Amino acid sequence: MRNEIQLAMQDINDLINNRLRNKLGEYNIYGSRIDLPLTFETSPPIPIELKGIASDLVVAKIRLQNSEKPLLWDSAVKILDNYLERIYGFTRNIPFEPVRLHTITPRTGIIGSTVTLSGTDFEPSAKLDIVFNTTNPTTTPAEVITSDIGAFTGVTFTIPANQPDGSYVIKVSDKFGGIKVNYQVTS
Question: Are strands 101-105 and 114-120 parallel, antiparallel or unpaired?
Fold first, then answer.
């Protein structure tokens, strides 16, 4: 099995355009780094047959034995789905969404406190929507745009004066989704 994977990886390496690989080295999609090229040492390991069919397309084959019993086939597909979700975070028929990282300081404060937001893995060069409870607070900078790798730092806003003590949700989102974090207003 290891030799077959090594041969498949070598085929991929031979088929991928060296100029493309040298140019990219790493590639960012919504801020998530993907290292090129794929190798046998890719982490987590790739335990399936890979076939390069173009300079920008790789097909993975997973072999399941045909069976006259549909339950065995359905079980094999569920095992594959669970594996893809557990190892790579992919779920079939659901668009892949990166795990966004964020920093919100402080997490609790009084009315008038300044909250500072930072985050990564958002859509690159995109406008973010920031919501406190159900309103858009005035932020500094006024328009929050992510960097070319989907990050933003040092965005601030003030807790509005009309908020009674309690737990509120801060949402930061782009057109692909976002994060929600609880914030506690205290006296």
Answer: antiparallel
- CATH number, domain of 166, equals 2.60.40.1930
Is 64 in contact with 80 (CB distance < 8 Å)?
yes
pTM over 0.85: no
Query: Do residue 18 and residue 54 come from a single domain?
Result: yes
pLDDT band at 68 (very low <50, low <70, confident <90, very high): low
Residue 160 near residue 172, CB atoms below 8 Å: no
Number of domains in the chain: 3
Q: Is 61 helix (H, G, I), strand (E, B) or coil?
A: strand
Residue 61, strand partner residues: 49
Residues in the chain: 187
> Which residues span the domain enclosing 180?
101-185
Are 38 and 27 in contact by the 8 Å Cβ rule? The answer is no
Alpha carbon 113 to its chain centroid, in Å, reads: 31
Instruction: State how beta strands 108-109 and 177-185 pair.
Output: parallel
